[in-house]
Design a protein that fits this description.
The structure holds two protein chains of two kinds. By secondary structure, chain A is mainly alpha-helical. Chain A has helices at residues 6-16, 36-40, 50-61, 66-95, 102-123, 128-152, 159-176, 179-201, 209-232, 240-264, 272-288, 296-319, 324-352. Classes of the chains: A mainly alpha, B mainly alpha. At the A-B interface, helix 1, helix 2, helix 3, helix 4 and helix 12 of A face helix 1, helix 2, helix 3, helix 6 and helix 10 of B.
Chain lengths: 353, 346
């Protein structure tokens, strides 16, 4: 079944065919895509013969039409070419090629950033190529600062380098309205905080409950801003996966101090972690869930809650109990029961959405 | 990426394959089937939970000395596997998530017992790997659980890798990668036919499992913890040939046109340019398979792997950094240049 073949023509026609009834009369089920799961569910229905299933699979799963392939090729060449070329520049900077000289290295990468930014400005951020060029310019700004750090010995992992990178690309992120740029900025913000905690406070951030709680608070504020922005102007942050990453980060920053408090009880505010986690879970299940059919946030919330309950149970059943064998068995059953409960709830929620 | 089910059903009705009046009823059933398939993150949660639970259960079995020694453990594991399979297929498990999770955890416990028993009892890595491979094939076909089927494909690839390493096959990890990639390619290419075959529910999980295993093996080969010092040339050459074949088939009659020749030439040149970085062609191949099959999951897997591969490639010591930089810049320029050319050609 290749482009140009009979089946391919059929699939093309399937994609372009106008629905027979008026669009205004279309029910919710009319939007169900013809996936393998949907078609295979029809197998045991009365009046559905195996030939019908075979034909339905043939119609629904045959390759996309030629125009779709052309679009795919165009986008893939752009994204892949941009990614490989940007990686090439990054590798080049890291190779610290002495033959080029200090100014040569600095000038080369500066020229690359400028060209990408100018190209994006000329094409406009509303065009795909403009977006890719803007992302390339933002990604290369960091290596530019890194080369500066190499030449003037200011350090390539100093917290202020990442802060400067984030601040420099902030206008592009705001103009670009591109989820990849938002994610880059988010990553830079978190990395800056991590390095600053390490380099200014002189303590290992991974070992500090306060670090996690501060990071949880800061990321939660960004998440709140993101949700508000999404509701006011869906175009600004339309892709919900930026929100997904933010939510997962917040849950992670709340879960880790909860585990630490339960296992080691050595933090100044041992119950703050569980309190933060509980607040996030209330926000996800009470405030967001009724408005948002996306199941990722509830699934991530349930995973974080399961992890904390499991750690608490291990403390009680394994460390403080004398019946170790029974404790191990109970732990297995507890994990099974929690995951089964979570999966059942998520399935029900998915079906009712 | 898919046409609406309603159009497919109406078309079947017009072709006389289903009753046109039954379409609305069938649509509701298809809708339930579509909603019943859990999203990837729910499957990930379920799979991870099963791993943790089975770890506790295995530890319990050993602590209370319930596990027989040597081959007895393998036999015990086989009974547990059969019991878990029967539980998963039972009508009671259909409506109970707890029983489904228990069956999955039991299946993992059985797997671990079989591996442990065979390794202890026979002291022969190839026999152990062979038996484990057979157990995986049986699991993929008969254990009615998507997570188990996905994991079974990964375990099968791991068994093949163990066999390659035991027999000291030259570039064994690359050969295991190629077998996994070939299996994945064939499954996704022939998916409609396989879905209409005897094990339709196994097709997607096994297809995903093989793609994931192939990409993981490639990343493993790059990190080289097994000290095989792979050149990557074998994987690169085979991948380039595979992508070229796919492009040849997809282009159909247009393969002799200007754009068609440009695409084929690009695949050849990209294959040559990235001969020491097989991850690029692996990602390209996965992208093509994913787009052709209309599977967003495969596309996401390909892009995620490419980012991971580039990071791992950075730390790979086989190729100097400056050479890697030139290779990536040239490949990027090649792709962007071809895009400009194709746009100019319309």
């Amino acid at each position: 079944m290749f482009p140009g073949s009979k089946d391919h023509v059929v699939r093309g026609a399937m994609m372009e065919e106008e629905p027979e009834d008026n669009a205004s009369q279309a029910g919710e089920t009319d939007l169900v895509p013809a996936t393998a799961e949907a078609i295979l569910a029809l197998q045991d229905q009365p009046g559905v013969r195996p030939e019908a299933i075979r034909r339905a699979l043939e119609l629904a799963l045959s390759p996309p039409p030629r125009e779709a392939w052309a679009r795919f090729l165009d986008r893939t060449l752009l994204f892949l070419g941009g990614l490989l070329a940007t990686s090439g520049v990054l590798f080049f900077v890291a190779s610290n090629w002495q033959a080029l000289g200090r100014l040569g290295r600095l000038g080369l990468i500066e020229a690359a950033v400028l060209l990408a930014a100018l190209g994006s400005w000329r094409l406009g951020p509303e065009r795909l190529a403009g977006q890719v060029l803007l992302t390339v310019a933002a990604a290369l700004t960091g290596p530019l600062l890194g080369v500066y750090g190499q030449i003037y010995q200011t350090g390539a992992d100093a917290w202020n380098l990442f802060l400067a990178w984030g601040l420099l690309i902030l206008p592009w992120v705001l103009v670009g309205r591109n989820p990849v740029l938002w994610l880059l900025l988010l990553g830079l913000g978190n990395l800056t905080a991590w390095l600053a905690w390490d380099q200014l406070a002189g303590t290992d951030p991974w070992d500090s409950a306060s670090f996690y709680l501060w990071m949880c608070s800061a990321n939660s504020l960004v998440w709140l801003a993101g949700e508000t922005m999404r509701r006011r102007n869906p175009g600004a942050l339309a892709r919900s996966w930026v929100i997904r990453v933010l939510a997962a980060l917040c849950l992670f920053y709340a879960a880790v101090p909860s585990w630490m408090a339960l296992l080691e009880s050595r933090f100044e505010g041992p119950w703050l972690g569980p309190v933060f986690l509980a607040a996030l879970l209330v926000a996800i299940f009470r405030l967001l869930r009724p408005r948002d059919p996306d199941l990722f946030l509830p699934a991530a919330g349930l995973a974080a809650a399961i992890s904390v309950v499991t750690v608490a149970a291990s403390r009680i059943l394994l460390e403080e109990s004398e019946a170790e064998e029974a404790g191990i068995l109970l732990m297995g059953v507890l994990v099974l029961a929690q995951v089964a409960g979570a999966a059942a709830w998520l399935r029900r929620a998915g079906r009712s959405s | 990426m898919r046409p609406p089910l309603v159009r497919v059903l109406r078309r079947l009705g017009r072709e006389g394959l289903v009753d046109l009046e039954a379409v609305s009823g069938l649509l509701a059933v298809g809708d339930q089937g579509e909603r019943h398939s859990a999203p990837w993150f729910v499957r990930l949660l379920v799979g991870f939970g099963a791993w943790v639970a089975s770890g506790f259960l295995v530890a319990f079995l050993f602590m209370v000395d319930l596990v027989p020694e040597d081959l007895g453990a393998a036999l015990f594991g086989a009974f547990v596997l059969a019991g878990a399979g029967a539980l998963r297929r039972s009508p009671a498990a259909e409506g109970s998530d707890f029983l489904q999770q228990s069956a999955l955890a039991g299946w993992l416990v059985g797997q671990l017992m079989v591996v442990f028993g065979m390794a202890e009892g026979t002291d022969s890595p190839p026999v152990t790997a062979g038996v484990v491979l057979l157990v995986q094939v049986a699991s993929m076909a008969f254990f009615a659980d998507a997570v188990a089927r996905f994991l079974a494909s990964g375990f099968a690839v791991a068994s093949v890798l163990a066999l390659m390493l035991h027999w000291k096959v030259p570039q064994g990890d690359e050969v295991a990668f190629l077998l996994s990639a070939l299996g994945a390619g064939l499954i996704w290419w022939h998916r409609p036919a396989l879905l209409a075959g005897r094990f339709p529910q196994a097709v997607n999980p096994v297809g995903y499992g093989l793609v994931f295993s192939a990409l993981a093996l490639l990343a493993l080969a790059l990190a080289d913890p097994l000290e095989q010092h792979p050149s990557g040339i074998l994987a690169s050459t085979a991948l380039s040939a595979g992508v070229l074949l796919m492009a040849w088939c997809l282009l159909g009659e247009r393969r002799r046109s200007g754009p068609g020749l440009a695409v084929l030439g690009l695949v050849l040149l990209l294959g040559l340019a990235t001969s020491s970085a097989p991850g690029v062609m692996a990602a390209v191949g996965t992208l093509v398979l994913g787009f052709r099959a209309g599977e967003r999951g495969l596309l996401a897997l390909a892009w995620s792997f490419l980012l991971f591969f580039l990071a791992a490639f950075y730390y790979n010591l086989e190729v100097p950094l400056l050479e890697k930089s030139g290779l990536l810049l040239a490949s990027g320029a090649l792709l962007l240049g071809l895009r400009a050319l194709l746009r100019r050609c319309g």
